[in-house]
Automatic annotation (TrEMBL):
Highest rank taxon of the organism: Eukaryota
Record gene name: Iba57
Location (main, coarse): mitochondrion
Cellular component annotations (GO), alphabetically ordered: mitochondrial matrix
Coiled-coil intervals: none
Originating species: Hippolais icterina
UniProt keyword list: Mitochondrion, Transferase, Transit peptide
Lineage: Eukaryota, Metazoa, Chordata, Craniata, Vertebrata
Protein name, as recorded: CAF17 transferase
Length: 249
């Protein structure tokens, strides 16, 4: 999830907007209400709002057209995960986007997913399966997703110890296929192998010829493959340029 603070100061009544995977909206509401415990907190979905990703274009200076104060928008803020993801825009449903961001072009959801797969940015329960994905292996420490100073939370001891030891053997990485994936796709969790048959990791999700996979770092620079319906589908992994220097070691 991503949390956005809507109140301007601590003197105001706090208003927090939570962005989540729509497929788990009900379960997240139940989870939050479980911990409300008689507090005067209102938890409710916002069906009248729409979420947009504003992705920077290829030409230099594209960011300069982004308004500092977009009045028709409820929120226009840099994506907290990584600079390459541009901005998050939340506006009323039906708002005229060309008024909010002059010169912008509306893409489709696949354009967005292809962009984030290319950058190795995980999102939602398909990329980050609950109870399976580990925060450090999912690169959340690079994306403002982990605090090592806030105190205790579920899994904090293991996460902090692994971080300070500096030994992370597997990470989510962007992968590229030589051709678009078959229409049936690749099963979630499909095993990825090296050319010699060693287990290298598992496939998470993809679109077209791009995807994201949990891989052992020792095999990142090797030719990889997935056995799919009797065929060997080749793929290659890469280390994202936006990662901190030396992060893939």
């Amino acid at each position: 999830v991503t949390l956005f603070r809507l109140h301007g100061s601590t003197a105001e009544e706090p208003h927090i907007l939570l962005e989540c995977d729509s497929s788990v909206l009900d379960s997240i509401q139940k989870h939050l209400k479980l911990y409300k415990i008689r507090r005067k907190v209102t938890i409710a979905p916002c069906p009248d709002l729409s979420l947009w990703a504003v992705i920077p274009g290829e030409q230099p200076g594209d960011a300069s057209s982004l308004p500092k104060n977009a009045d028709p928008a409820l929120l226009l803020t840099p994506d907290p995960r990584a600079e390459v993801m541009g901005w998050r825009l939340i506006a009323k449903k039906g708002a005229n986007l060309s008024e909010i961001i002059p010169g912008s072009q509306v893409g489709d959801i696949q354009d967005y997913h292809r962009h984030r797969y290319k950058q190795g940015i995980p999102e939602g329960v398909q990329d980050l399966p609950p109870g399976v994905a580990l925060p450090l292996e999912s690169n959340l420490a690079f994306m403002n997703g982990i605090s090592f100073t806030k105190g205790c939370y579920i899994g904090q001891e293991l996460t902090a110890r692994t971080h300070h030891m500096g030994v992370i053997r597997k990470r989510l990485l962007p992968v590229t296929f030589p051709a678009p994936l078959p229409t049936s796709g690749i099963p979630e969790g499909a095993e990825i192998l090296t050319e010699s048959g060693k287990r290298a990791g598992k496939f998470r999700a993809g679109a077209g010829e791009l995807g994201i996979a949990l891989l052992r770092l020792v095999h990142v620079n090797e030719p990889l493959c997935i056995n799919l319906a009797g065929d060997r589908v080749k793929l290659r992994a890469a280390t994202p340029e936006w990662w901190p220097k030396g992060a893939a070691k």
